[in-house]
Specification:
Keywords: Ubl conjugation pathway. By secondary structure, this protein is of the alpha+beta class. The chain has 14 helices and 9 strands.
Length: 358
Amino acid sequence: MASALGEHQIPSDGDPSAIEAVKLWERGVSKEKDGSMMDAIQFYRKALKMNEHVEKVYRQKVRTEIEISKKLQEVNISQKGPDFDSECNAEDGSEGNGELQPCWILDMLPTDLLLHIVREVVLTSGESWVNLSLTCSAFNKLCFHNSTPYKTFATLIYPLQRYDEVSMTLNGMSSAQQVEELFWKDDYPRMINERPYIKFRGIYISVVNYLRHGMNPEGSLSLIRPVHMITYYRYFRFYPDGTCLRCLTTDEPSTVVKNYHKGNYVKDSHICQWALSIDDNFGRLTIRRHDDKYHFTEELQIKNQALRKHHRLTWISSSATDKEGNRADFSLKNEKPFFFSRVKSYHDDSLAMSAHSD
């Protein structure tokens, strides 16, 4: 299906080099998903040299494929399990490809005991939650047609979120619990579906590639100006205590991610403060830091990535304010969204930090 759809995304009378560039970009995306960043960058560079607008063409192709897929099959997202800081696509199996077989042994056990098992699995990881739902019809029903796991998940993640006090005061709210009661009450599946949250068991990464035209050496008679591919990365790692690590570097994720924590100094990394606003559908994220001369503020919006809930951060603004109150806005022309990537080794750090913040 993907290949069939892909043939319709690039005009048949288009430039053959553009078609080849998109294919190279897709190979780069595949390598990046596998963690082979060096191979991915090589494909990205080749694609950009063939067509400097290849990324826009690729993203439009992906969006169109998603729209066509939605039209071809009705996907009931409200019955899908949440992403739970997981890199996997949360296909909960509630509308699975085949009928799940019953498990007669489980039918002999009380529902309360089975729900206790489900709760423990939800606290372990989202992947385990999804996998449990696929084992048999009994667990599938308990995992995604019962409010208990959703409530467990909600009470796990939302108390760890940090909300801007000024925003809450202006909206007449004194606590996050008031917000929950006002908008969702006890409808936990809808809350998880609608209410954005920051994820702690991984890292947000933005990969920026752009072309920069160089200058010919003095005295050169060449009419062709050299083109340089510039690649850099932005990293955000959030903690439940309201702090986050921010890093802008040319170092690849394979070098940075594994040991990226507060106890290990990383060059060009800063400790910042983060908070969510209850405006803009609760998904406006503000990150602040300062030095001796300036206060820096970065604003981003939490958004979905296809069926992955609250998995992406898109830029709103980036600015610096000096001691006199003069503000300068930075250009976001080359900036790209952040995508969340789960890191298993971060799990214990997040639990320890959340316990400390309590």
